[in-house]
Amino acid sequence: MKIALRELVRRPSRFIAATGILTLISLLLMFLGGLADGLIAQSTNAIEAQRGDLLVFSTASRNSFVRSRIDSSLREAITSVPGVTEVGGLGVAQLGARVPGNGPRDLADVALFGYEIAPRGVPSSPPDGQAYADSSLKADGVRKGQTILLGPARTPVEIIGFVSETNYSGQGSLWASLTTWRTALRANRPQEQLGDDVVQALVVNVDGAAHAAAQLIDTTTGATSSLTVREAIDEVGGVRAQRNTFNSIIGVTGFIALVVIALFFTLLTVERTALYGVLKAIGARSRTLFAGLALQAVVVTIIASIIAGGLGLILDAVIPAGSVPYQLSASRIVTSVVLLLFAAIVGSSFSLRRVLKIDPASAIGSTS
Amino acid sequence: MSTTNVAVDLALRMEAVRKVYRVGDSEIVALDHADLTVAPGEIVALVGPSGSGKTTLCSIAGGILSATSGRVVVGGTDISDFSSKELTAFRQSTVGFVFQSVNLVPFLTARENLLVVDELGRRTGSAARKRADAILGELGIADRANNLPSQLSGGQRQRVAIGRALMNEPRLVLFDEPTSALDTKLGEQVMTVIRNEMKNRGIAAIVVTHDERNTRYCDRTVHIVDGRLEGTSSH
Ligand SMILES: Nc1ncnc2c1ncn2[C@@H]1O[C@H](COP(=O)(O)OP(=O)(O)O)[C@@H](O)[C@H]1O
Ligand SMILES: [Mg+2]
Fold first, then answer.
1. B209 in a domain, yes or no?
2. How many domains does chain B fold into?
3. A365 CA distance to ligand 2 centroid (A)?
4. ipTM of this predicted complex?
5. What is the CATH number of the domain that holds B220?
6. Which sequence spans correspond to the domains of chain A?
7. Are A293 and A265 in contact (CB under 8 A)?
8. Do the chains contact at A279 and B65, CB–CB below 8 Å?
9. Through-space distance between the first and last CA atoms of chain B, rounded to whole angstroms
10. Would you say residue B174 lies in a domain?
11. I want to staple B59 with a disulfide (CB 3.0 to 4.6 A). Which of A73, A252, A296, B64 is the partner?
């Protein structure tokens, strides 16, 4: 073990190529992970910010806001389910908005939310006709105090402040009263026939276990589908597909790391055949030699991960907000490092058989 | 160590040892009917032409190779039927090797090359460091302790290899043509060092050599021809 570490310190040049390649792979892993997290966050932050145990949709909606309708009688039924402590209406309208003064490209995609229970980071529901905008809309020219016009009907909404990380489905969110939301939806989608008591979903807080409460609500009403916030996030359009796509790319990248490590350490082992033969002749066990090899693989991987983690964080700081949806979290760094360490151990273990096969007699023979 | 011990074990006893190499369909008998005993502290020169089986004999005596048949007992331990795992532990604890070509770990200093032996076995730490320093001193290369093999001359490297073979306090050290890569003068110096070290420490040794002149540093010479040991001559 000591020999293996000494070799790393005294002959760093032998390991530079492998460290370099693994650094790039590790950076790629972290970048892909950060991109996946950023993209998914852009679609789901609005849901994640909800202050509730459950999101309740109507059964026919298949858990989509667009098709979900909950009227006052259904809302009362839910409110009276034992264990339910708080209920708040939620609705969303995805519309194109005109942003005055933003030149010829004055259209911005927005998701107008009407809410009762204020999500995390959002003040309580503003007066009708006003809204808080997600700060990502600043990139589209949205300013505080400005009135923007929603949809083909050009429904006016005044922006009275900004909130952050509340986007939905890749669109900048606006946070307004339920009335403001209804007004905009009725004006721009006249065929929807939305009653004054109707919302799309309910944010529900409960006593005790969320899953049990969800089941109780659904069996009591017979007309609802209750999801935890986590589950509701996965229901946001495209999130599952994105997650699966990124996970497979990350998996392939991890596999490439494994192949690189396996090849590199196989080459090193071949190169060290004579040395390992001598060490075996003077009493080294194969296990000891292989442990040294695996240790080198792990150390190289850790060094590569540290460099890549640093580069990843620099990238995170340098990339202007709103340009690339890249968000590097600590848990993503840890996951990438764990994946690489796994690749290092499995990859280096391909050399185990080769180490076992080295004959100590090769050390003493004058041949070869 | 104890002089009162009457039944001192022989350093090496080989009885009717035979070694056959299989190469494809053909068989090469490298060693046949080999009987050899080495007393504790005795230095035996093994002389014979190239291909006569000298390396094979050393490998079997040191537990690097297993004999095809016959018995091999080193320092009272019968290793004839040892598994390769047992042989590894045996080599680590009981014998020392000095190979024909110098086989030091290139990125370790002279001192560290000696300490490798300690790292491979039951670690003794500071005792091993003391021992390494003492051995380097005796070998006359204390001032080279922190040099890498590439910074040492051929003779110095061979001394480091000798030091490494002594680190585990072996019962028997096997020298396979230790001077063949050195010129006559350096070869004689190394042979002197070998003789002094073995005699001071009371360790038995087999020294394989081409060169009849080296036999005068040994207590006894055994000749080997075509895998058969022939008459011994004492000095
Ligand atoms: N690994 C091996 N496989 C096959 N034949 C071998 C092997 N090692 C040695 N031999 C043969 O065994 C004989 C003795 O070899 P060796 O012990 O190396 O002799 P020496 O050391 O006296 O030159 C030679 O004929 C050699 O070719
Ligand atoms: Mg030989």
1. yes
2. 1
3. 6
4. 0.92
5. 3.40.50.300
6. 2-44+239-365, 47-235
7. yes
8. no
9. 25
10. yes
11. B64
